[in-house]
């Protein structure tokens, strides 16, 4: 079983300095405080299910910002672990429901997202589903850092609309149901990821119509290609400081999907397990 990392979205700052309260709610509270309360209940629900805190389950400190959150998780995470960040949505007063974001182009992560969202919706009567969505159609069209910059499987969920009376009533009066639904989903998700081996499946790489001798690897269903192969595409990796890199068997790899930011087309042929770059 993979371990679970939880983050309550936004942060309290240190001593109120550099805090990021997130969106205001119709109850006059802040997104951060609502998410911390929900996360605390979720931790308890996971403990009821036998998950041990600080051993199988880690809560990111509520005082640190997003960048530090990513580092905090990456410093501790092992292959097979999962991470979920909790948020509340804001929009027109009539907008309602939960939605979840996954890294665009990763069908496995999409299934993980649907699993978590569906379990939540089943557990909270009255909560509407807005679906599982690729992170490129979030407010950030280049994707969400929490979905992209962690070295483990990660998802970002918007539990409900903080700007809607009924949604806030649901969260406030049935927070335990939100916590139970999320706990059930996380148990299933982390159970599926536990046995990722230290060696990774290899994949063929085709660049501009040519299949290369050197192979890539699949890690958590993300394709990684050797950095050496990137050179012929005249790509300057220094322009991608946030691209996910990893070292495996003395070879440096970069995550293929990150190359899209430099206008490389990245496609995956699942039938022949081949990554196609142009
Ligand atoms: Zn938020």
From TrEMBL:
Task: Tell me the protein's name.
Answer: N-acetylmuramoyl-L-alanine amidase
Organism superkingdom: Bacteria
Species assigned in the record:
Mojavia pulchra JT2-VF2
Pfam (any one): Amidase_3
Give the GO cellular component terms, alphabetically.
outer membrane-bounded periplasmic space
User: Which InterPro entries does this chain map to?
Assistant: MurNAc-LAA_cat, N-acetylmuramoyl_amidase_3
For this protein, the record's SMART domains field holds: Ami_3 (SM00646)
A GO MF annotation of the entry reads: N-acetylmuramoyl-L-alanine amidase activity
Instruction: Using the record's annotation, list all stretches that form the MurNAc-LAA domain.
Output: 73-187
The keyword Hydrolase belongs to this UniProt entry's keyword annotation: yes
- Does Repeat appear among the keywords? no
Which GO terms fall under biological process for this protein?
A: peptidoglycan catabolic process
The residue range of the signal peptide is none
UniProt keyword annotations, A-Z = Hydrolase
